Description:
Elements: E1 9-11, E2 14-16, E3 21-25, E4 32-37, H1 41-58, H2 63-79, H3 81-92, H4 96-116, E5 123-125, E6 131-139, E7 142-146, H5 154-166, E8 169-173, H6 180-192, E9 199-202, H7 206-213, E10 219-225, H8 228-240, E11 245-248, E12 253-257, H9 263-275, E13 285-291, H10 295-307, H11 327-342, E14 346-349, E15 364-367, E16 384-390, H12 393-400, E17 405-406, E18 408-412, H13 416-425, E19 430-433, E20 448-449, E21 452-453, E22 466-474
Parallel strand pairs: 7-8, 7-10, 8-9, 10-11, 12-13, 12-18, 13-16, 15-16, 18-19
Antiparallel strand pairs: 1-2, 3-4, 5-6, 6-22, 11-21, 14-15, 17-20
The structure holds nicotinamide-adenine-dinucleotide.
Amino acid sequence: MTSYPELQLYIGGTWRKPGETMPVINPADGSVIGALPMAGRAELDDALQAADEGFRVWSRTSPRERGDIILKACALMRRRMDDIAHSITLEHGKPLAQARLEVIRGCEFFEWDAAEGQRLYGRVIPSAPGIRYVVYRQPAGTVAAFSPWNFPMSQPSRKIAGALASGCSIIIKAAEETPAGALHIARAFHDAGLPRGVLNLVFGEPAEISSYLIPQDQVRLVAFTGSTAVGRHLTGIAAAHMTPVLMELGGHAPVIVCDDADPVAAGRLSAIRKMRNAGQVCTSPTRFFVDESLYSAYSDAFVAQVRKTVVGNGMEAGTDMGPVANERRLHALQELTDDAVAKGARLLVGGGRRGNQGYFFEPTVLADVPSDARVMTEEPFGPLAVINPVASLDEGIRQANALPFGLAAYAFTHRAATVDRLVDEVECGNLSINTLEASLPETPFGGVKHSGYGREGGAEGLDHYTIIKNLSHAMAF
Ligand code: NAD
């Protein structure tokens, strides 16, 4: 029988449990499942020193050896998948099957970056006789990273994978509400023989930790995933110290359903994908702009599929959707729904909290939502979809681009010419046609506009974790 792990900090290769703790809550029933130790200044200073020492060792370790240790840790995580998934479901609420998939995805991020780390090629620039110009890509230094609660294991995986594969050390503050995913990663790396100080895991008061770590001299990259508001704040602190940032921020993903799409198949797929992870995904499809000729067929198929969603405790077999991860989301979703209905939106299904134990919110669909409803501009980050008709492709693209966000965008169409226009005109970092998958280990992921800066994954994923150094070498002197 698996149990929720004992929560600790991991600093300089040792496990630490300073005095002050905060409770970790199971969102399915509100029970306390763990006591999370909070780092203070002393722990952060120790982590900074350890990361400095770790960087000196790790940056001088060969890429192949680094890759071997990362893969060894991955093998352990795959072997421990049931344990890790169990912890994730307890602290986050998602169905166990989705938690298992998350562990696999997290391992895939590590595996991809471990291989990419061995291909950090520089280049030789053609030069005059007697002099050589060589461009190197070198590890940036210590990374200060901050990962959110929606994917407790795969979110920290992205940051740790990028840092370690590039030869950087990292201090990661994972989400306090869902700490076990990151803890399991640290355990695997500890057991795989990662040198001390290369990976340091802390928890605490987010604002205190970020404002203390980011200005430190040895921090050479700030990597954050979370809301645009917090990302903007952290970017401001980093800018004052000329420290580069990698920012994966909010989205409010549009889906354009063109007049040649199959409305029933598209409606079904949209509903399934919308409710994944209870909608708490930065790429979650949310604003559905449907050609008016397909509007009712698409909406009917969407709603019929939503009605089939089995909402319940993620530990129970057959559950499709668990609770939202915390009480804040419950209130935010209720406010956005009530506001839209008050302004004239039609509530097709759902609309409120389910039961009074745990943080369950009904899968909810709103139609004909006026543009002044808050949900048209604020990311709901939950199981809430908006379906509106559009008269043309032009209008669909205009609506898609209407917000300051530009992370994922989707469309359903079979026409090559339409795809061509979407590629040129939709403002986003990730465009998906006839699929609602936006982020894979092998493809670059990130946003434009207020959705962030930089890319994770793909061949571009290590760019931010490395610096470019040019060598000019005169042979005769
Ligand atoms: P929030 O804005 O308070 O926090 C978002 C994340 O940032 C959390 O993980 C939090 O611990 C962290 N954070 C907050 N203040 C920080 C600080 N000063 N320094 C460092 N880290 C800090 O909101 P929330 O209620 O936790 O989440 C809701 C919103 O966050 C959503 O609406 C969504 O836009 C966004 N979010 C995005 C992602 C994503 O994958 N891009 C993930 C989780 C949350």
